[in-house]
Design the sequence.
């Protein structure tokens, strides 16, 4: 069971460079999320998507863009990397509320991308 | 603002003892709670969840207790093993009408001593 797969696992960028983080899930989940994790802080939501072709801002969206062209993929882009974006990035996915009679369902996470901006 | 926090950043427990990790939340609208385990270099792994219409739920060696009156939940791990060493997060969530909004705590590091 692959679950949620993130690529790359590690990356070092120079300030001003751009890159795209890839997330793929094979659980047919409607919802997908991008978080960042910094020392001493809880996971913070960057952007999320409730379905193919739709995206929305989370708690800390500035400096990031996302796209959900296919249901199974969610891409996070950094157009001009800054040192403040040095972090560990996690992608997650979950069923939608309407897909489950039981209501809320847990989010399932990938193993993260460790990104350093010099 | 909303917050979900754990009471202790680090908890040291002897192998075989029971562990109790506590968490407090501030948002009364939170109706679903999840405990995650995060090992070094890995993503958060789902352990157990509980909905607000329950006050206790049991899994394999784990129990979650929810006290809505004081906005507190706890994770109990029975017969703690070395493999339980990790950071444990609680998260509270409520449905906004478009998606579930999840608020994470900062985590408690569980250290299991032999």
Sequence:
């Amino acid at each position: 069971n692959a679950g949620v797969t993130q690529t790359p696992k590690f990356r070092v960028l120079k300030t001003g460079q751009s890159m795209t983080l890839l997330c793929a899930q094979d659980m047919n989940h409607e919802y997908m999320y991008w978080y960042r994790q910094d020392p001493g802080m809880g996971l913070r939501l960057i952007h999320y998507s409730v379905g193919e072709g739709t995206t929305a801002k989370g708690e800390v969206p500035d400096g990031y863009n996302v796209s959900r062209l296919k249901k199974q993929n969610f891409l996070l882009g950094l157009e001009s990397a800054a040192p403040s974006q040095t972090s560990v990035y996690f992608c997650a996915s979950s069923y939608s509320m309407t897909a489950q009679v039981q209501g809320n369902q847990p989010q399932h996470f990938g193993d993260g991308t460790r990104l350093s901006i010099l | 603002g909303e917050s979900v926090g754990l009471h202790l950043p680090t908890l040291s427990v002897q192998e075989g003892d029971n562990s109790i990790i506590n968490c407090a939340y501030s948002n009364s609208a939170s109706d679903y709670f999840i405990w995650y385990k995060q090992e070094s270099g890995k993503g958060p792994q789902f352990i157990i969840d509980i909905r607000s219409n329950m006050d206790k739920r049991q899994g394999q060696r784990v129990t979650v207790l929810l006290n809505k009156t004081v906005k507190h939940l706890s994770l109990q791990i029975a017969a703690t093993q070395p493999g339980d060493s990790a950071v444990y997060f609680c998260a509270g969530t409520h449905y906004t009408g478009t998606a579930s909004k999840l608020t994470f705590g900062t985590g408690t590091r569980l250290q299991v001593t032999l």
